[in-house]
Inverse folding.
């Protein structure tokens, strides 16, 4: 089992699936909000609004999401209790259950504060992907070309996206777990993926995972 914590622009969405493929394990990312939505009966959009990586981050987490009387998940109608609000803590609790189930079966899990949730398990490798803000901005801008991009400097939209995502992810972990996701002591391996190619990062993680 491998958990990967990645800041915006650090290549988590590229490195994670590649590591999973090399290890022959499932990659779990956006599947968790969808599973949680199925369990607690809120729509996928509402679950993503709770997601620590949503642009409005902690504000939406604390606001909660309104339930609907009935929703369809994967074509199956789900009956919901007569409660108007999904408390943030309930969403986090159900997310943690999915994380623990993933750990039991094995997988590569990106985000979800899994490094904290699974901190006590000796069979899990915890990895952090990060890099200086300026270089992450360059990489993010290169991956998301648009108006103002390609001129040698990231556009304001990319800057706002990076800063908003960084704040949201940090706020999620700090609020619910009292931890700083940037603390290197949480991880077995910290990689600057703005300096090392993604393929090198994948090699390092795979080697470390097989050595655990």
């Amino acid at each position: 089992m491998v958990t990967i914590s990645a800041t915006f622009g650090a290549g988590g969405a590229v490195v994670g699936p590649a590591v999973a493929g090399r290890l022959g394990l499932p990659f779990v990312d956006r599947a968790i909000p969808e599973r949680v939505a199925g369990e607690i009966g809120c729509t996928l959009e509402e679950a993503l609004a709770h997601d620590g990586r949503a642009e409005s981050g902690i504000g939406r987490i604390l606001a909660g999401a309104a339930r609907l009387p009935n929703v369809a998940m994967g074509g199956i109608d789900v009956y919901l209790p007569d409660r108007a609000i999904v408390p943030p803590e309930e969403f986090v609790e159900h997310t943690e259950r999915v994380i623990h189930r993933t750990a039991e079966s094995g997988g590569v899990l990106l985000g979800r504060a899994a490094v904290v949730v699974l901190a006590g398990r000796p069979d899990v490798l915890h990895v952090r992907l990060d890099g200086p803000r300026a270089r992450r901005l360059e990489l993010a801008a290169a991956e998301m070309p648009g108006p103002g991009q390609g001129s040698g400097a990231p556009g304001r939209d990319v800057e706002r996206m990076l800063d908003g995502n960084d704040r949201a992810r940090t706020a999620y972990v700090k609020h619910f777990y009292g931890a700083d996701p940037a603390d290197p002591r949480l991880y077995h391996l910290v990689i600057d993926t703005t300096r090392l190619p993604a393929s090198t990062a994948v090699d390092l993680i795979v080697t470390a995972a097989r050595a655990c």
